C-alpha cells in the first residue's frame, strides 16, 4: 500500500495562512490603547464571605487546640489558638451507662449548661468553640 505524497509547498502555504489568521485574530500585536467593553455582560457578583470571616477570624488557615489543656495552662504558655475543641460523650437516653451523657455534666449549671460555659470561656480567650460528639452504639 503506498502513501500519497504531500507537496512541500502546500504545508508551507498552510502554515503561513494559519499564522496570518492567528495574528489577525490577535489584532496583529497592535495596541489600540482602549479595551473593548464586553457586550451584554453583567457585573460580577460579590464573593461570598469566607467561613473565617463569618467566624470573626482572619482570612487564613485557622489553628485549633483540644481543650485537654486548661485555659490557665494556655494563658501561662501564651498559647492563642483560633479554635478550641472539646468533646461531648453520648446523647441523653442513648447511652447504656445512664446519666453519663454530656447534658448531665452540669457542674451546678442547668441541663446542657456546660456548652454555654465552655463557649463563654473560649470566647474570653479570643477563640472559636468547637464541639466533637462521640456517640457509641449501645
Outline of the structure:
This protein has 138 residues and is an alpha/beta fold. The protein has helices at 8-25, 51-54, 71-76, 113-124; strands spanning 64-66, 83-89, 128-134. It is elongated and about 90 Å long.
Total of helices: 4
Helix-strand pattern: HHEHEHE
Terminal Cα span? 77 Å
Q: What helical percentage do the residues reach?
A: 25-40%
Low confidence ranges: none
Mean pLDDT: 73
Give the helix/strand class.
alpha/beta
Outline: elongated
Assess the beta-strand content as a share of residues. 5-15%
CA-based gyration radius: 33 Å
The counted number of beta strands is: 3
The side-by-side strand order for the widest beta sheet comes to 1-2-3
Largest sheet: 3 strands, parallel
Structure write-up:
The protein contains four helices and three strands, in the order ααβαβαβ. The chain is an alpha/beta fold and 138 residues long. The protein has a domain at 60-134. Strand 1 (64-66), helix 3 and strand 2 (83-89) form a beta-alpha-beta unit. The longest helix has 18 residues, at 8-25. It starts with 7 loop residues before the first helix and ends with a strand.
Give short descriptive properties of this protein.
alpha/beta, 138 residues, 4 helices, 3-stranded parallel sheet
Summarize the SSE layout with pairings.
Blueprint: H1 8-25, H2 51-54, E1 64-66, H3 71-76, E2 83-89, H4 113-124, E3 128-134
Parallel strand pairs: 1-2, 2-3
Amino acid at each position: 500500500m503506498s502513501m500519497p505524497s504531500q507537496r512541500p509547498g502546500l504545508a508551507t502555504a498552510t502554515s503561513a495562512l494559519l499564522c496570518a489568521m492567528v495574528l489577525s485574530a490577535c489584532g496583529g500585536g497592535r495596541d489600540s490603547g482602549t479595551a473593548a467593553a464586553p457586550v451584554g455582560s453583567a457585573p460580577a457578583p460579590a464573593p461570598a464571605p469566607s467561613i473565617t470571616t463569618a467566624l470573626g477570624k482572619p482570612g487564613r488557615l485557622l489553628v485549633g487546640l483540644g481543650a485537654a489543656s486548661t485555659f490557665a495552662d494556655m494563658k501561662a504558655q501564651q498559647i492563642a489558638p483560633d479554635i478550641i475543641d472539646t468533646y461531648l460523650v453520648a446523647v441523653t437516653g442513648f447511652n447504656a451507662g445512664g446519666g453519663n451523657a454530656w447534658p448531665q455534666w452540669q457542674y451546678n449549671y442547668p441541663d446542657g449548661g456546660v456548652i454555654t460555659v465552655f463557649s463563654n470561656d473560649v470566647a474570653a480567650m479570643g477563640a472559636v468553640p468547637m464541639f466533637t460528639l462521640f456517640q457509641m452504639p449501645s
